[in-house]
Amino acid sequence: MRKKLLALFSAATLSLGLAACSDSDTGGSGSGGDYPKNNITIVAPSGAGGGWDLTARSIGKVMNETKIIEKPITIENQPGGGGAVFMATYATKEVKNDHMLMVKSPPILINNLKAEGNSPYGYKDTTPLAQLTKDFGAIVVKADSPYQSLTELLDDIKADASALTLAGGSAPGSMDHLVTILPAYEYGINPKTVKYVSYDGGGEAMAALLGNNADAIGTDISTVTPYLKSGDVRVLAVTSPEKLKLEGLEDIPTLYDLGIETEFTIWRGIFGPKEMSDTAKDYWLEKLDELSKSEEWAAELERNGWENDYRSGDDFTAFLEEQEVLIKEILTALDMQK
Fold first, then answer.
1. Cβ partners under 8 Å of residue 254, min gap 6
2. pLDDT recorded at residue 338
3. Can you tell me the distance from the alpha carbon of 138 to that of 284, in angstroms, rounded to the nearest whole number?
4. Which residues have C-beta within 8 Å of that of residue 168, sequence separation ≥ 6?
5. Alpha helices in the chain (DSSP H)
6. Residue 29: its pLDDT value, please?
7. Residue 70: what are its φ and ψ, rounded to 5°?
8. Is 164's pLDDT higher than 80?
9. pLDDT value of position 337
10. What angle do CA 117, 206, 303 make, to 5 degrees?
């Protein structure tokens, strides 16, 4: 049961006149087959450099270069509250804006379910369009860190948790925090004793590590890969069920390799506004399917160290329903549930 909990992340036609009037006030598509009317914005609800930002920019890059869609895509960063600030805006002020999409991952569930700092808004306040990728967590130190293995780090935390600072790009109880503390939890350390500092996105967490403001960070492997290749960091472990097969990552141990019985899968997907028109939804389901099958997208996945894990529409919604149940279980186990 414990392993099951910790293997968390392994997701009508209206009156034409009324619809056109309503959509003109909100940026929506209106009725008819002329969608999209305006340029498209994809929001990464974090600062630059993290997984949401990279995902949004990869989608925009491939779709712009291949002309999969007719209008240009621009990317906006809207940081705050580990994604919760923009989530509130999207769920209340952009509910009909067919020309604004959002990239999200497990925090769209976690932030809505955790007890402290929770958001009243979740995936049910959006239109889930598609899951695009699968990524994994990583525990990372600077290249000159004295820690050569994750177990060395965990042993020192167990001896004196106050002496070390861990960090991540999301608030306590959120995704990076879970990536960071789950190995400690399984190692027999009370997660409440681990000193954790939250930053707004993986890019800021990495800057804290490189600036000697953290001893280690928990984040996603795609955020880490450029720094690993440049020699700035060392990855102590990844949360994948098996060793990664990507170039340069093949020798990094999994948690299982270290005798720590847990894994952590990070999915990423794209969402539309809650009251997205049928025209816009059908358009994006078609275009995202085309994106997922393109050679250019496959190359982007490889470049970022992501795995293709595509599901769309109703399948994606059903996956999110299943994930919601599992997240409630794990937050309960960590005494962090709402």
1. 237, 238, 239, 240, 241, 242, 243, 263
2. 67
3. 32
4. 174, 175, 176, 177, 179, 180, 196, 198, 199, 202, 205, 217, 218, 219
5. 2-6, 16-26, 51-66, 84-92, 107-113, 150-159, 175-186, 202-210, 221-229, 278-292, 295-304, 313-333
6. 40
7. -80, -20
8. yes
9. 78
10. 110
Residues of the chain by 3-state class (helix, strand, coil), percent to 5: 45, 20, 35
Q: Report the alpha-carbon distance of residue 200 to residue 98 in Å, rounded.
A: 27
Q: Quick count: other Cβ atoms within 10 Å of Cβ 164?
A: 17
The string of pLDDT tens digits covering residues 234-271 is 999 999 999 998 778 899 999 999 999 988 888 999 99
**Cis peptide leading into 36, omega within 30 of 0?**
yes
Do 135 and 144 touch, CB atoms closer than 8 A? Answer: no
The span from the CA of 33 to the CA of 69, in Å, is 14
Could you name the CATH architecture of 136-258? 3-Layer(aba) Sandwich (3.40)
At residue 70 the predicted structure's pLDDT band, cuts being 50, 70 and 90, is confident
Q: Where are the domains of the chain?
A: 2-135+267-333, 136-258
**pLDDT (tens digit per residue) in 116-156:** 667 899 999 999 999 999 889 999 999 999 999 999 999 99
In CATH terms, are 2-135+267-333 and 136-258 the same topology? yes
Taking a C-beta distance cutoff of 8 angstroms, is the pair 105, 327 a contact? Answer: no
Contact 102, 169 (CB under 8 A): no
Question: Does CATH number 3.20.20.140 belong to domain 2-135+267-333?
Answer: no
